[in-house]
Automatic annotation (TrEMBL):
Protein name: Phage tail fibre protein N-terminal domain-containing protein
Endpoints of the signal sequence: none
Pfam families attached to this UniProt entry: Phage_tail_fib (PF12571)
Source species: uncultured Desulfovibrio sp
SUPFAM superfamilies reported for this sequence: Pectin lyase-like
Domain Phage tail fibre protein N-terminal: 3-162
Database matches in InterPro entries: Pectin_lyas_fold, Pectin_lyase_fold/virulence, Phage_tail_fibre_N
Amino acid sequence: MSTILTAAGESLIARLQAEGKALIIDTMILANVPGQDHTQAIAPGVTVPAEDQIALRYAIPPQYRAYVNPNQVVYSAMLGSDMGDFVFNWQGLWCSEHNTLVAVGTFPALEKRRYDEANGKTGNNLTRNFLLTFTGARELTGLTISADVWQLDFTVRLNGIDERQRLANFDIYGQAFFDADGWLLQKTAEAYAFAPGLGYVGGIRAALAESLPLAAPESANLPQKVWLDVCLKHTGSDRVVEASPMLTPPAAPLADSAADETGLMHYRALVARIEADGSVTDLRPRKNAGILPIPGVDGVTIINNNNTLIVPDVYVRLAADMTVYVSISGDDGNNGLTPDAPMRTVQMALNKVSSSYNLGTHIVTINIAPGTYAERVRLPRYQASTGSISIVGSGIDSTIVAGMSLDVDATYSITDLTVSAYAQQINPWCLAVSSGRVACRNCKFWLPSNVTGAYSYMVWANNSGLINLGATGSSGIQIVSNATAYHMILASSGGRIEIYDHITMSGAVSVACACAQTLGSIFRNGTSNPTISGSVTGNRYIATLNGVISVNGGGASYFPGTIAGNVSSGGQYV
């Protein structure tokens, strides 16, 4: 399902808030739009469908208009069995007073049937709810009725609880952790089987109650890497853990997380390698791979000393800077500590560092050989005092990595490489930072022509995330879109982007070259006074919803574009 607050709705909300007038949403429109793809993002300029596509205009009773919290309101339509027959896959909220379509949602087609006693035809009852979220929603709409349970779909809330639990486990156990002999692959005669026990993969708890056989691969196909693929699969009204082994050739890349054709996320861990002679090498991570030590594991104990919690260090403390090598000809079973024994994937190299070492005051360099690495890299949290991790390629035309994200409080630098959008992701981004800091030096951010989705962000700082574009010693930044990007650079919800060195931009944008919204900020360094060159088709900039763009004297034409920038709803461009 896709939803959007329309451009007309945003404009109306901003105007009424400024005028101190109420927003009255009184109608829910249901329609059947042929050829609609509910998995695609909705265009902000969407309008009401043609009259012959509209199935119902439902007058929303006052008691079906309610608030959830100060920034969320919900509107409901109760479609009884006396209504029908029609099919609909589109719903919109309409303000009759101002003739404005405020919000739109799309979804797979639903059938509304009317009960017909004469023909013995059964009907159905449907409840359609539409939740709106924006600052001051309750005050602007003047709603005083609290939302009842039937007005809320708790599916998203429950999924959110599952995700928070997964992330909490991830913080403790890291990408993968196995206790004792849990999921240990063993060979007996010519048969292979996993030992029962416990493991965590991507934060999901995978418990094996009894031995699980693994089909023996053909000897001609050896050696093979063995992975454990884990997901939370929907079963009825529940979500249950499903864990399945996977075999891949030694050189085949495999991302540590990926969505299947239904959008369900799968998380993987390398657990073993079956060698050419049929023997098994155990590759399960056996020590704490997250930020929190685990009591009772690998000799870790917790001692209460004068009401102070003391946790002995479970990481190897670095005594000097260290380099981990990655190459497309490498193997994730290698330790990566020498150029002739590189690892295969950037993600596994980062996981190794974050799970095994305390950096202290030292720098760990992930040295990436030339090649295209078709993996979306999640930058993990690591142990350090003032040390950090530096990811270094072999040149922007030589090393390409398909997407990077940072959502934990950590500091990284990336240098001499291209970060492209992950083509298998709908509405992809090149670099997304929602916590921590990433400093970029001599980097190229590239949106390929084969990406899908209307919302493609190239460089995105969100929440408390900070991105530095360029720094001392940098050779500049390139931002190149071969598709149509939503924004070249976006700072939202408190995120911040700082420009320190020259940027070359090219391509087209559907909204704006630079956008700062909802307290996000984009800042041009006033000492280095970096410039931006290139040709971009679309708006130069948008500063809205208290977002701030500071160009320090760069002027209204600082960002390239064919349309003048604009400021609205408390935004600033200075």
